[in-house]
Amino acid sequence: MKTYIAKEDEIKAAQKWYVVDATNLILGRMASRVAAVLKGKHKSIYSPHQDTGDFVVVINADKVKVTGNKLKTKIYLRYTGYPGGQRAAALGDMMQKDPRKVVELAIKRMLPKNALGRQMFRKLKVYSGSVHPHVAQKPEALTLNL
C-alpha cells in the first residue's frame, strides 16, 4: 500500500464554495460539521497533512442556538499577556457584542492547532446577516444532516 498524496492542481480543481445558514442550528453541531468540510474530510482525496478542504460561508450567525444554560454559564477566557490580564466573557455577552466571533471561535477551536489549521481557518467566512459578498463564487447550500 502506498500513501495517496493529492497534487496541487487536483486540490484546486476540487475546491468548492458552500454556504451554511446558521438559523436555528445548534452551535457545536454546526461547528463540527463545518470544521470537517474545512479540513476536507468529506472528500476522497483527503490526506491529513494537506489542506484539501473547501471554502465555507456561514450566514445568519446571530440566529444560532445553544442548548441548556450556556448563555450564562459558558465562559470564554483570554489572556492579554500582562500580569493580571486574564479576561473572561460569558457566551450571552459575546453573542450580543459580536455573534460572528462566537461562531468563528467554535469552528477555529475544532481545527488543528498548527500552520495547516490556520490555513484552513482562512477559508471560513462568517456574517451576521443573510447578505454576503461571495455571490460571484456561486456557493452551494451545504446540508449538515443535523
Kindly describe this structure.
The protein is an alpha/beta fold and 146 residues long. It has one domain (13-141): Ribosomal protein L13 (Ribosomal Protein L13p, Chain: A). The chain is 33% helix and 17% strand. It has helices at residues 8-14, 27-39, 70-73, 91-97, 99-108, 115-121; strands spanning 17-21, 55-59, 75-79, 86-90, 124-126, 140-141. A four-stranded parallel β-sheet has the order 5-2-1-6, covered by helices on one side. A two-stranded antiparallel ribbon has the order 3-4. The chain starts with 7 loop residues before the first helix and ends in a 5-residue tail after the last strand. The model has no long low-confidence stretch (mean pLDDT 95).
List the SSEs and their pairings.
Elements: H1 8-14, E1 17-21, H2 27-39, E2 55-59, H3 70-73, E3 75-79, E4 86-90, H4 91-97, H5 99-108, H6 115-121, E5 124-126, E6 140-141
Parallel strand pairs: 1-2, 1-6, 2-5
Antiparallel strand pairs: 3-4
Helix pairs in contact: 2-5, 4-5
Please summarize the sheet with the most strands. 4 strands, parallel
Overall CATH architecture: Alpha-Beta Complex
> Per the principal axes of the C-alpha atoms, what is the gross shape?
globular
Gyration radius, in Å: 17 Å
Question: Which spans of ≥5 residues are poorly predicted at pLDDT below 50?
Answer: none
Please estimate the helix content: 25-40%
Tally of separate domains: 1
Query: H/E element string?
Result: HEHEHEEHHHEE
Tell me the name of the CATH homologous superfamily. Ribosomal protein L13
Order of the strands making up the biggest sheet: 5-2-1-6
Q: Give the helix tally.
A: 6
How far from one another are the termini? Answer: 35 Å
- What is the level 1 CATH name? Alpha Beta
**Helix/strand/pairing category:** alpha/beta
Strands, count: 6
Q: What is the mean pLDDT?
A: 95
Proportion of strand residues: 15-25%
| CATH level 3 topology | Ribosomal Protein L13p, Chain: A
